């Protein structure tokens, strides 16, 4: 259906328009092979299975994630296979290895992309940056995308709660004439709430910007800046943390989620409203140049290159873990750990 966002009309597919039964009908003869069992793999594979689709998982044997797949109920030799075997068996290959990992597996995947199969991504990365990744799909397969707009963990949680996480969807190549029904059916199958139409380039550039920006990078940066200023002015760690993070996530963001920032503002004191109305523009103006250089870095492919280079190294996990440890051990997030223990659900 067409929906108007602000004053712009966009194409959105709903579960009412395209019910699960229709998705099951569209995909009844398909074997969906979910390749990779990291974060998106489990969420999408389990939701598809619970929605009644024919799904198998492909994962490297002798890995922690193979064991996780077994623990989640996938049966070796029946529904869980080595990556290449899954590529061979699947008619729809859901390429859910890490974006850098996809480069290494591509020759194997390509070998098994016989005419009429579908190659499915959850990120526009691989084909948009094809000069860097070498991922150039053959012309006789469908190339489609469903990108859940959130973590695989939330995709599964929201499915189990009977809700659904919104996803973007796109078609890069329609070889069979069925790419559209296939991609929408898969979008419904993996547990999407609403499906927003986009293209591969727009998906990858917005996604890379968002996660580096307000979803993760910018928000951590702004938390750290405010926390440091409060601490430098003699505020205790708990006071600095509560006033920077805890109140935001526990009290104010849920209100923003329900009804928007304007409504949250209106439910705070007029003192807060006056100040926050005065200060949001200076913050916008101070950070906008950073967002502009971030977008430029995404657009030129620099962000993709950095991610490929570092995540292709054999010790990339250990390196990431080292930096995550630094974040975890920072005073702000140590304070956070103690503050979280005080929540009723965590203190027995
Ligand atoms: N993490 C998310 O919640 C999320 C959200 C939206 C989209 N995506 C996209 O979904 C895709 C999968 O992301 P993810 O975060 O689930 O991946 P991930 O980093 O968790 O890795 C997934 C799997 O890839 C395997 N892998 C990595 N390198 C490999 C290699 N060289 N050979 C074989 N296996 C290898 C790992 O063992 C793991 O099981 C990516 O395109 C990502 O951008 C992820
Ligand atoms: C969950 C995110 C941040 O939206 C996703 O884009 C990812 O790459 O993990
Ligand atoms: Mg992303
Ligand atoms: Mg994202």
Structure notes:
- The structure is a single chain.
- The protein has 348 residues and is α/β, with parallel strands linked by helices.
- The protein has two domains: 2-200, Rossmann fold (3-Layer(aba) Sandwich), CATH 3.40.50; 213-346, no CATH class.
- The protein is 56% helix and 14% strand.
- It has helices at residues 20-26, 40-50, 64-71, 83-89, 99-111, 125-128, 130-133, 152-160, 179-189, 200-212, 217-232, 237-259, 261-266, 270-299, 302-311, 316-328, 331-341; strands at 2-5, 8-13, 32-35, 55-58, 80-81, 92-95, 118-121, 142-148, 165-173, 192-197.
- Strands 1-2-10-9-8-7-6-3-4-5 form a ten-stranded mixed sheet, with helices on both faces.
- The longest helix has 30 residues, at 270-299.
- The structure holds nicotinamide-adenine-dinucleotide, (2R)-2,3-dihydroxy-3-methylbutanoic acid and magnesium ion (2 copies).
- One magnesium ion (MG) binds at residues 123, 207, 211.
By CATH reckoning, the class of the largest domain would read Alpha Beta
Gross morphology: globular
Mind telling me the C-alpha Rg? Answer: 22 Å
Outline the low-pLDDT stretches: none
Q: What CATH architecture label of the largest domain applies?
A: 3-Layer(aba) Sandwich
Bound molecules: nicotinamide-adenine-dinucleotide, (2R)-2,3-dihydroxy-3-methylbutanoic acid, magnesium ion
In total, how many beta strands?
A: 10
Helix content: 55-70%
For the record, what is the CATH homologous superfamily label of the largest domain?
NAD(P)-binding Rossmann-like Domain
Q: How would you write the strand order of the largest sheet?
A: 1-2-10-9-8-7-6-3-4-5
The largest sheet is: 10 strands, mixed
Mean pLDDT: 97
Percentage beta strand: 5-15%
Instruction: Compute the separation of the termini in Å.
Output: 47 Å
What's the structural domain tally? Answer: 2
The helix tally amounts to 17
Q: Indicate the CATH topology of the largest domain.
A: Rossmann fold
The ordered H/E elements are EEHEHEHEHEHEHHEHEHEHHHHHHHH
**What structural class results from the helix and strand content?**
alpha/beta
């Amino acid at each position: 259906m067409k929906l108007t966002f602000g004053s712009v009309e966009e194409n959105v597919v709903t579960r009412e328009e395209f019910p699960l039964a229709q998705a099951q009908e569209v995909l009844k003869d398909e074997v969906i092979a979910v390749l990779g069992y990291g974060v998106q793999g489990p969420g999408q594979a389990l939701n598809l299975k619970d929605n009644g689709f024919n799904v198998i998982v492909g994962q490297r044997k002798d890995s922690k994630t193979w064991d996780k797949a077994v623990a989640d109920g996938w049966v070796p030799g029946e529904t869980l296979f080595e990556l290449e075997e899954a590529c061979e068996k699947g008619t729809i290959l859901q390429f859910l290895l890490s974006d850098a990992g996809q480069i290494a597996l591509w020759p194997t995947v390509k070998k098994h992309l016989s005419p009429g199969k579908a190659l499915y991504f959850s990120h526009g990365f691989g084909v948009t940056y094809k000069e860097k990744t070498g991922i150039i799909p053959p012309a006789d397969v469908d190339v489609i995308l469903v990108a859940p707009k959130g973590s695989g963990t939330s995709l599964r949680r929201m499915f189990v709660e009977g809700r659904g996480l919104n996803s973007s969807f796109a078609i890069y190549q329609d070889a069979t004439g069925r790419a559209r029904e296939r991609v929408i059916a898969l979008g419904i199958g993996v547990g999407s709430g609403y499906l927003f139409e986009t293209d591969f380039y727009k998906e990858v550039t917005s996604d890379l910007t968002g996660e580096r920006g307000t979803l993760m990078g910018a928000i951590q940066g702004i938390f750290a800046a405010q926390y440091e200023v409060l601490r430098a002015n003699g505020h205790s760690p708990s006071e600095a943390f509560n006033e920077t993070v805890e109140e935001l996530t526990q009290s104010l963001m849920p209100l923003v989620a329900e009804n928007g920032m304007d409504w949250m503002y209106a439910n705070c004191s007029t003192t807060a409203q006056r100040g926050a109305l005065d200060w949001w523009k200076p913050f916008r103006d101070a950070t906008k140049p950073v967002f502009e250089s971030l977008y430029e870095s995404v657009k030129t492919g620099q962000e993709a290159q950095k991610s490929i280079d570092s995540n292709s190294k054999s010790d990339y996990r250990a390196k990431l873990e080292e930096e995550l440890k630094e974040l975890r051990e920072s005073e702000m997030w140590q304070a956070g750990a103690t503050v979280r223990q005080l929540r009723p659900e965590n203190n027995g």
